[in-house]
Amino acid sequence: MLPFLRESFGNPGTPHPSVGGVVQRAVREAREETAQLVNCRPNELIWTSGATEANNLAILGLAEQTPEGRRHIVTQVTEHSAVLEPCRHLESKGWEVTYLSVDELGLIDLQQLENAITDATSLVSIMWGNNEIGTIQPVADIARLCAARGILFHCDAAQAVGKIVVDLEAVAISMLTFSAHKLYGPKGVGVLFVRDLNKQQMISPRQFGGGQEKSLRAGTLNVPCIVGLGAACKLAAAHQQRWHDKVVALRNRFESILLDRLQHISINGDRDNRLPHISNIAFYETDDEGLLTMLPEIVASTGSACHVSDFAPSHVLDALPVDPKPTECSLRFGFGKGNTEQETRSAADAICRAVEHFRASL
Ligand SMILES: Cc1ncc(COP(=O)(O)O)c(C=O)c1O
């Protein structure tokens, strides 16, 4: 990224070969690296400022050109707010939105999805893996079902890309979104994949101007961040499996220490079918906010880290049909390639002591 912050200030839109050329090449290369990670064509990608913008462009951009009789979307209750909020916005404009419920593991029911689809349905939007509990949805089955019914399928893969295999050749997703900062890239850049972008007009733009990104997302490109996203994708493509295995081993070690030492705890989400980096644990007979304040050395969270108010009760945990509800007593831990075994053990130890202390004080 540094050369594009320090020396190469050219605008990729400029026709001047020595000013624009180097920048154009860098953006082209980043597009190829990004496309390679998810196995799509470079010209199917639109740069955005992140997954929020990409989700909004996918959902609202599609809505803009959907005819009157097809104003129905199917999504799920545990989506990120970057999908739920555009859907709610459309509801306020007269659209109908079906929010599928999830089971105790956080999974949607395919039969329920099939039943929810009507002649008016234009879009199904279901995320790849949940950002709070990590549950991975059966995206290949959802894609097949949508294709068979002639309905577009949008998938928020912000938490999945770079962590597990996301292969757009293998899975017939119509639109997919992700963000650089979830795969060790810079914040403030992301991407929207639109299948066969050159052949069909699936979406309308949300912002208008200089015609960048095939006129679907006008504005001068954020070149340093785009270059950073490309580099992050290239590294992820090369090291994903190794990072995955390391992170899973650390997370499993962490969870086994907690499960061995503490009573009345449970792992939220689908333990066997989870994103590698997420561990969301209910510590019954404690309080999530209280525990967090007892653990200042640990960067954990009670809900979605992307929310402005971090202490908002989690709509994801609240949606799980389990008794007792884990909503007020759960913490979400994230693991990354830079974490160590030592950190994992000392974090688990500090958490055990905090939980025991909390319970003893009741
Ligand atoms: C599943 C999911 N979707 C969307 C977003 C929003 O992404 P961004 O911060 O790039 O706008 C996030 C952020 O954490 C996320 O986890």
From TrEMBL:
Keywords assigned: Iron, Iron-sulfur, Metal-binding, Pyridoxal phosphate, Transferase
Residue ranges of every copy of the Aminotransferase class V domain listed in the record: 3-343
Single annotated GO MF: iron-sulfur cluster binding
Reactions catalysed: (sulfur carrier)-H + L-cysteine = (sulfur carrier)-SH + L-alanine
Cofactor(s) it depends on: pyridoxal 5'-phosphate
Record keyword Transport present: no
InterPro entries given in the database record: Aminotrans_V_dom, Cysteine_dSase, PyrdxlP-dep_Trfase, PyrdxlP-dep_Trfase_major, PyrdxlP-dep_Trfase_small
Record EC number: 2.8.1.7
Enzyme kind, highest EC tier: transferase
Any matching Pfam family: Aminotran_5
Function: Catalyzes the removal of elemental sulfur atoms from cysteine to produce alanine. Seems to participate in the biosynthesis of the nitrogenase metalloclusters by providing the inorganic sulfur required for the Fe-S core formation.
Family affiliation: Belongs to the class-V pyridoxal-phosphate-dependent aminotransferase family. NifS/IscS subfamily.
Name of this protein: cysteine desulfurase
Source organism per UniProt: Stieleria maiorica
